[in-house]
Design brief:
Number of strands: 0
Order of helices and strands: HHHHHHHHHHH
Strand content: under 5%
Structural class: mainly alpha
Number of helices: 11
Helix content: over 70%
Shape: globular
Distance between the termini: 24 Å
Length: 273
C-alpha cells in the first residue's frame, strides 16, 4: 500500500511539473480545441449549403427562404463566434451565440430522442460554460489588490459556472462507451467512469482531467478516423463531425485543467481541513 501511494505521489509530482511548464500555452490550446467543431460545422454549411437547405426544407416544409436562413445563421453564427473567441473580443456574447446555435440545431434537426447526441451537446454546452467562467476569472477589479463588493458578486457566477461546466463536460465519455469488447474494454470503461466522477465532484480534479483528456483523445482517434475514408463520402462526413465534437469537449476538459475545480469542489474543501 505504501509503495502504491509513493508511485501515485510521484505521478502527481510529474503531472504538476508538466502543468506548470505548459500553463502559458494550455489556455490557447484549450480554446482552439473548444471552437473546432463550430468552425468545422460552419465551414460545412458553406460547402454543403444546398444539401443542408434541402434537408431542412424537406423536414419542416418551411420553404426555400426559411431553410436558407437557417443555414445562413448556422454559418455566420458559428464562424463569427469562433473569430470572436480567438480574438478575445466580446467572448461572453460569443458564448451566448454558440449556445444558441447548439439549441437551434437540436430543435431543427429534431434530435431530442438521440441520447448520444444529447450527451454530446450537453458536454459541448458545458465546455462553453467553462469558457464563460474564464471571462469572469479574467475580470480585474478597478483598484488592484482592493477587494470590493462588486468583485465578490462577480466571483459568484464564476463559481456556479465552473460547477455546471465541470459536471456536464465529462458527459462526453458516455457516447464513447462500447460494451462487449472483452476485459480490456471493460477496464477502459471503468477507468473512464472513475475519471468522469472525479472531475464532476472536483476531487484530484486537475490530474483526473489530464488523464480523461488523454483517454478521450485516444478514443476519438480510434473511433472517428475520418481521414481514412474517401473525401466527400457520407461516412467521412459523419466521422469528421463526431471527431471535432469530441475534440471541442477535450478543449472543455482542458479548461478544467487550466482553471481548476472552483470553490464548489472537494479539492477546495480539503484546503480548509
Amino acid at each position: 500500500m505504501e509503495r502504491q501511494n509513493e508511485l501515485l505521489s510521484k505521478a502527481e509530482d510529474v503531472a504538476d511539473q508538466i502543468l506548470r511548464h505548459s500553463k502559458h500555452v494550455l489556455p490557447h490550446i484549450a480554446r482552439l480545441c473548444l471552437i473546432s467543431t463550430f468552425l468545422e460545422d460552419g465551414i460545412r454549411m458553406w460547402f454543403q449549403w444546398n444539401e443542408q437547405r434541402d434537408y431542412i426544407e424537406a423536414t419542416w416544409g418551411c420553404g426555400y427562404f426559411l431553410a436558407s436562413l437557417f443555414v445562413f445563421i448556422n454559418l455566420v453564427g458559428q464562424v463569427g463566434g469562433c473569430v470572436m473567441i480567438l480574438s478575445r473580443q466580446k467572448v461572453q456574447w460569443a458564448c451566448g451565440l454558440l449556445s444558441s446555435i447548439i439549441a437551434l440545431q437540436v430543435f431543427m434537426y429534431n434530435l431530442f430522442t438521440e441520447f448520444d447526441y444529447i450527451f454530446r451537446q450537453l458536454a459541448l454546452a458545458g465546455a462553453i460554460i467553462l469558457l464563460l467562467a474564464e471571462c469572469f476569472a479574467e475580470t480585474k477589479p478597478i483598484l488592484a489588490g482592493v477587494p470590493t463588493a462588486e468583485d465578490d458578486d462577480m466571483k459568484k457566477p464564476k463559481t456556479y459556472l465552473q460547477l455546471v461546466g465541470r459536471i456536464t463536460v465529462p458527459l462526453m465519455f458516455l457516447p464513447l462507451v462500447h460494451f462487449g469488447g472483452g476485459y480490456f474494454q471493460i477496464l477502459l470503461n471503468l477507468v473512464g467512469f472513475a475519471l468522469m466522477v472525479l472531475v464532476m465532484i472536483g476531487y484530484k480534479t486537475k490530474h483526473a482531467a489530464v488523464v480523461l483528456c488523454l483517454q478521450l483523445f485516444v478514443l476519438n482517434v480510434y473511433l472517428h478516423p475520418w481521414w481514412m475514408h474517401r473525401w466527400g463520402s457520407a461516412m467521412q462526413d459523419y466521422l469528421k463531425y463526431d471527431f471535432f465534437q469530441t475534440l471541442s469537449v477535450i478543449g472543455g476538459v482542458l479548461m478544467v485543467v487550466v482553471m481548476g475545480p472552483g470553490t464548489l469542489s472537494l479539492d477546495e474543501r480539503k484546503k480548509f481541513e
